[in-house]
Write a structure and sequence with these properties.
Layout (H helix, E strand, L loop, with lengths): L7 H9 L8 H8 L4 E5 L3 H4 L7 E8 L7 H12 L3 H6 L11 E12 L9 E11 L2 E9 L5 E13 L5
Antiparallel strand pairs: 1-2, 2-4, 3-6, 4-5, 5-6
């Protein structure tokens, strides 16, 4: 459950102070900014390693502030949040992170299916995987679940990932 995982503030402290092996400058910059969406990754290895990992990820997400009781607002917030980790997930199998300065990622397309009402200001588990990545392109899919395990939203994304020219 999200309460059992480090908060963003605790993650920030670990990363800024260089705990668990330290992190790149781009990861530090990310964690030093304020965020409208709080993320609590279940597994933190991809922040600290270039090891090839399974192309799957589990992250608890929620808006950092209480939102009005308008389903359209909650859908908009979740649409924004859904774009935050999908490209990252497809990079794991290649030993890369979205924070890598060796790549230039771009979102090619993104689709969402809303199945049931939900609150984006309450924790939702974002389970994502990438069944295909190669030839500078990758596909990821994700599912958002309530604490009770009910599927509320399904997301897909195709991305273009190119190696930066200065790394050839």
């Amino acid at each position: 459950m999200p309460e059992d995982l480090p908060s963003e503030e605790e993650l920030k402290e670990k990363i800024i102070k260089g705990a668990a092996g330290g992190a790149s400058e781009s990861v530090r910059r990310y964690f030093e900014r304020d965020h409208p969406i709080e993320l609590r990754p279940v597994d933190l290895r991809h922040y600290f390693t270039n090891e090839k990992l399974p192309a799957e990820q589990y992250v608890w997400v929620r808006a950092t502030d209480t939102l009005p009781d308008d389903n359209r607002i909650h859908r908009c917030v979740l649409a924004y949040a859904s774009d935050m980790t999908l490209l990252d997930t497809l990079l794991f199998a290649h030993g890369l992170s979205i924070f890598s300065d060796r790549i230039q990622p771009a979102n090619l397309d993104h689709a969402l299916w809303f199945h049931r009402p939900f609150r984006a200001d309450d924790w939702l588990l974002y389970a994502s995987d990438s069944p295909s990545a190669g030839g500078a392109r990758g596909f990821s899919r994700g599912s958002f679940f309530t604490r009770e395990g009910e599927l509320v939203v399904f997301a897909t994304q195709e991305g273009l990932i190119r190696q930066r020219k200065d790394w050839f």
